[in-house]
Write a structure and sequence with these properties.
alpha/beta, 10-stranded mixed β-sheet
Length: 320
């Protein structure tokens, strides 16, 4: 079971902060991990005072300090609750571009996982917005986004994997990271663990309706069956080391992964999806695969997103 030593909880006011805190506290307590609580003021040090001075006159610096004291006070209340539970906790109010400062903190301090509640809509629902998507794309450590008030514990966890042909060490390594983490979470929460792999035959529609193959449906059927068999073989090979996943909980889903994973999660009332993202080197700011991006935009349950081994964030300690 994967264990965490350092948990970072992002508790901004516009997010499901209480949900994120409760889950981070539970994770820190069960892992005997250190817990760091952060809030973010969206201005660089000194900028807030200058802005408020322009608006209010000479007392801008005092008002800016009062604003910062308010954020520190919020975190202090959360921190007291954590200390009452016997958790080693620290807190910090960061200043600057929110996602950049959170990722820099991860780079500086090496947190094992970042937990954040999704941004809150007026009706109380959590939705993924700019800050959430930025840290999902660019943070090097696993990022856990909680989507609703009931996300303190889970009954059904789905590991979304994409087993590759033999020889693709990066994809296999990422899939095993996903399975290890999902299995550990399921054990801790006494939840059902399901594993899904989405597959499809590229251009199947064109093969079935094309000028030269539309009259050869049996041959197309054989090609589709062969592709499915290969997908099943790759999934079984990957799961050979995970006997805790019963056969009934291993799912081959036919269709575009970005669509069918999210559809399956909704239909089966999945509480948490653990999934990998595939880096695109050389495209700073767009480093999550299209499949992962589509799933994240579509799901309504909590998500833990992991990066491949060796992933390098476009955010650095010296600049973004």
């Amino acid at each position: 079971m994967q264990r965490f030593k350092s948990v970072l909880a992002v508790l901004t006011e516009d997010s499901l902060a209480e949900v994120a805190f409760e889950r981070a506290l539970h994770l820190a307590r069960t892992n005997e991990a250190a817990l760091t609580l952060v809030d973010v003021v969206d201005s660089n040090p000194g900028e807030l005072a200058r802005m408020l001075t322009a608006l209010t006159g000479s007392r801008g610096t005092e008002i800016a300090e009062d604003v910062l004291a308010y954020h520190r006070g919020r975190l202090a209340e959360f921190a007291k609750r954590a200390r009452d539970e016997g958790v080693d906790v620290s807190e910090a109010v960061l200043q600057g571009v929110a996602f950049v400062e959170v990722i820099r903190m991860v780079l500086r301090e090496g947190h094992d996982i970042v937990i954040k509640g999704a941004t809150v809509e007026p009706d109380g629902r959590g939705v993924l917005k700019g800050f959430d998507m930025h840290i999902l794309r660019k943070c090097p450590s696993p990022v856990w986004i909680l989507m609703g008030p009931g996300d303190g514990s889970f009954d059904r966890i789905l590991a979304a994997v994409d087993p590759a042909p033999t020889g693709d060490d990066t994809r296999e390594g990422l899939d095993r990271m996903v399975l290890d983490l999902a299995a550990g979470m399921a054990e801790r929460d006494e939840a059902e663990l399901h594993v899904a792999h989405a597959w499809y035959l590229q251009e199947e529609h064109a093969l079935r309706h094309g000028r030269y193959t539309s009259g050869r449906q049996e041959e197309v059927d054989r090609i589709v069956d062969r592709e499915r068999d290969r997908a099943e073989e790759r999934l079984l090979r990957l799961l050979a080391d995970y006997p805790q996943v019963p056969e009934a909980n291993r799912h081959l889903l036919k269709g575009n992964p970005g669509d069918v994973i999210a559809d399956y999660a909704r239909a089966q009332h999945v509480d948490l999806i653990v999934m990998g993202t595939v880096g695109r080197t050389g495209l700073a700011g767009f480093i999550m695969g299209n499949t992962a991006e589509t799933i994240l935009r579509a799901v309504t349950c909590s998500v833990i997103a992991l990066k491949p081994e060796g992933f390098e964030s476009p955010v650095t300690l010296n600049g973004a």
